Amino acid sequence: MERKWWKEGTVYQIYPRSFADSNGDGIGDIPGIITKLDYLKNLGIDIIWLSPVYKSPNDDNGYDISDYQDIMDEFGTMADWDNLLAELHARGMKLIMDLVVNHSSDEHRWFVESRKSKDNPYRDYYIWRAGEGDREPNNWESIFSGSAWQHDELTDEYFLHLFSKKQPDLNWENPKVRDEIYNMMTWWLDKGVDGFRMDVINMISKVEGLPSAPAQEGRKYAGGGDYFMNGPRIHEYMREMNEKVLSKYDIMTVGETPGVTPEQAIDYVNEDRHELHMLFQFELMDVDSGHGKWDIIPYKLTDLKRILSKWQYGLGHGKGWNSLYMNNHDQPRMVSRFGNDETYRLQSAKMLGTLLHTQQGTPYVYQGEELGMTNVKFDSIDQYKDIETLNMYHEKVHEQGVDPAHVMLTIYIKGRDNARTPMQWDDSANAGFTTGTPWIEVNPNYTEINAKQAVSDPNSIYNYYKRLIRTRKDNLVLVYGEFDELLADSETFYAYTRTLDNERALVVLNFTAQDQTFTLPSEITYTGFELLISNYDLDATQDIRTFTTRPYEARVYRLV
Ligand code: TEU
Ligand code: CA
C-alpha cells in the first residue's frame, strides 16, 4: 500500500456563486470564500475543489468559459485568486480547479474567430458541419434539450454543442487545440494549483463521421452518448495530457465521466495506465432514473447497495480508486434524496455521511452537506435559474404540452437548483450569505438549518462530520482497507467490513426509519471490539453479535 495525500484527504466542493458574498451584490465571490477558510479547516477539510471561477458570460454558471486564464468579474480578480491559494496553502490545504475543456463559451476568442469564416485559422478549433438538407448534421440531442447542433448564418454551417448553444464543443482532433489546453493547464499548475476536476472529460473524443443515433419513437432527437462517451481516441488524449502535463507535478486528478462502468473506469485510473487518479461515476446518480433523469422511478436499498458495492469491488485491490459522493452542484441534496429530510434529517444525514467516509475512496463533501441542507420547492418556475431546468421546462410545457404541475414536481426532486440555493451561514436575513439580494433565493429553512447553529451544537451534523473526518484519518483501515459486503440481500442494512493487514473495521448502517435488529453473520469472528463512531448515544461495551439499531443508526467498530 502506497500512501497518497489525495487518498487520505477529504475534499470539499465550493460552488462559488452560492457560497459567500463579500460585497453585497448578491453573488458569492473569492474574497467571500477566504473569510470561510477557518470554518473549513475546523471541519477537517484538506482539499478544496472550486467550481469554475474563470471569465464567463454565465450561461451555465461558469461552465461556459470565455477566458481560461482570467477570473470572472463577479468573483473578483486574479489577485484575489492568488490570495485564496496562498491562504489555503498557509493552512496546509490544497486547491483543485475545475477544468472545463470539452467545450468553451461561444464568447471565447477562439470561437469568435472560428465562426467568422470557413478558412479562419481557428475554424477547426470547433466542430463544424454542413446540414443534411435543411436539417441538422445528425440527430443528437443536447444534454440541455433540443438539438446538439446550432446553425450559424454567417457561413451556413452548424456547430456541435453537447450542452447549451453557448457551449460549443472543442475539436480535440486538432492537435493545436490540445496544445493550447495543455499550455493553459501548465500555466495554472505553475501558479501552484494542486490538481484538476475535469468536466465531462470522457466526452472529448467523438466517433468519426458523427453518425446519428438510432431514432427514438415520437422524438425528434436522440441521445448520442454511444458516439461521444469514451470515444475512440479518449485514452490516447488522456495519456498525452498525462505525459505532457500531469506527470510533471504532485497533483490530484478526478475526471467527471457520466456513463462509465467500473470496467471502463479501470482504463482511466489504474496506475499503470498513467491517465487519471479517480473518476466521478454516475451509476448511483442514475439509480432513480428511467428514460433520462426526469423520468423518476422508485428503487430499493439493494439497488443502491448493488451499485456502490460493485464499484468498491470493481476498483478495489489496487485496480483503481473510488471517489465517494452523493451530491454536488448538479444533483439534489443528499439528505433529501437518499435520507429523510423531515423527522430524521439529523440522523439520516449523519448515517449517509458515515457511508461516504467509510468506503474505500476519497470522500467529497458538497457545500452545505455538512449542515444537512435540503432540497427547495420554489412556487414558480421564474424563481429557478438553472439552464438545464429552464430548457427542460420550456420543452415539456410549451412544446410537448405536459402538465406544468407535474414538471414542477420533477424539478423539486431532481432540479440542479436544489444544490445551488445560497449557503446557510446564520439565521439573519438571506442566511448571512449576502447583505444584498441573492442571485437565487435562499431556502426558507435557513432559520433552523445554518452553520452558526451547527458549529455551536455538539449534536449537529457539522460536528459529527468533524469527528467522522478525524476518525477516518486516525484509522487508515478506513482509507486503505479492502471492502467486503455483509448481508447483501438486506433491504434494511448496508453493512460491510474493511480489512487492512490485521486491522479490521465493521460498518453497520440502518437505512430505515424504524428500530431494526442487526445480527452479525457468524463467519465474522472477533475477540474484542471498539466503537469508533456512531450517530446515537449507545453502550459501547455491549456485545455486537446482535443489537438493536434506531432509525438511520450508523455504527463503526474496530474489530480485534
Ligand atoms: O456536468 C456534466 C453532465 O453530464 C451533466 O449532464 C450533469 O449530469 C447534469 O447536469 C445533471 O443534470 C458538468 C457540470 O458538472 C455541469 O454543471 C455542467 O453544466 C456541464 O458539465 C457542462 O459543462
Ligand atoms: Ca459578490
From TrEMBL:
<dbReference type="InterPro" id="IPR013780">
    <property type="entry name" value="Glyco_hydro_b"/>
</dbReference>
<keyword id="KW-0378">Hydrolase</keyword>
<dbReference type="InterPro" id="IPR032091">
    <property type="entry name" value="Malt_amylase-like_C"/>
</dbReference>
<dbReference type="InterPro" id="IPR006047">
    <property type="entry name" value="GH13_cat_dom"/>
</dbReference>
<feature type="domain" description="Glycosyl hydrolase family 13 catalytic">
    <location>
        <begin position="13"/>
        <end position="420"/>
    </location>
</feature>
<dbReference type="InterPro" id="IPR045857">
    <property type="entry name" value="O16G_dom_2"/>
</dbReference>
<keyword id="KW-0326">Glycosidase</keyword>
<comment type="similarity">
    <text>Belongs to the glycosyl hydrolase 13 family.</text>
</comment>
<dbReference type="InterPro" id="IPR017853">
    <property type="entry name" value="GH"/>
</dbReference>
<protein>
    <recommendedName>
        <fullName>oligo-1,6-glucosidase</fullName>
        <ecNumber>3.2.1.10</ecNumber>
    </recommendedName>
</protein>
<dbReference type="Pfam" id="PF16657">
    <property type="entry name" value="Malt_amylase_C"/>
</dbReference>
<dbReference type="Pfam" id="PF00128">
    <property type="entry name" value="Alpha-amylase"/>
</dbReference>
